[in-house]
Design brief:
Layout lengths: L2 H12 L3 H4 L3 H6 L1 E6 L2 E6 L6 E3 L4 E2 L1 H19 L7 E9 L8 E10 L3 E9 L8 E8 L17
Antiparallel strand pairs: 1-2, 2-6, 3-4, 5-8, 6-7, 7-8
Length: 159
């Protein structure tokens, strides 16, 4: 069993995804975390000054919001599906609805399609009021299901 699969199984069992986050240095640097609330996985971007993109307003950099969307989508996929590798982003579309203020930001992902090789996830991002999202995003991910691996651990069809 790969280290990734072991960590995913452990995270699902405990609801603590920090061991998986430790595998993604960029998510750690940004301050992205996850928690399971009422059976739903919620992503969190802990505010810090380097995340400011426009110091005049001040407003969060759009790239940090995009990173939260992408990370939350990937962790939602880990939460719902069996996978043997970190999914690869095919594309990410973000609708910025209002400026992100300098405060903690939250995201929740909803799986809209889960096929054999591609998953599509819709993500909503908010700060103080969930009814006033600051952004939404759609993420399409290339996945490799657990069943695509042979017992030796190589992808099926590989030499």
């Amino acid at each position: 069993m790969s280290e990734l699969v072991r960590r995913i199984q452990q995270a699902k069992a405990t609801g603590d995804f920090r061991a998986l986050l430790d595998m993604i240095p960029y998510a750690r640097w940004l301050g992205i975390d996850t928690e399971v609330i009422d059976g739903e996985l919620v992503g969190k971007l802990k505010f810090s000054d380097p995340l400011i993109g426009n110091p005049v307003l001040p407003a969060l950099h759009g790239g940090t919001i995009g990173a939260l969307i992408e990370s939350t989508a990937i962790f939602r996929l880990f939460y719902e599906a069996e996978t043997v590798v970190i999914p690869k982003t095919i594309n990410l579309t973000v609708a910025y609805l209002r400026s992100g203020r300098p405060m903690d930001t939250y995201a929740q992902a909803h799986m809209t399609k889960h096929g054999r090789r591609v998953a599509s996830v819709w993500v909503e991002v908010w700060q103080e009021d969930r009814e006033r999202p600051i952004a939404t995003g759609t993420v399409n991910l290339l996945i490799e299901p657990l069943t695509a691996r042979t017992p030796e651990g190589s992808a099926s069809g590989d030499p």
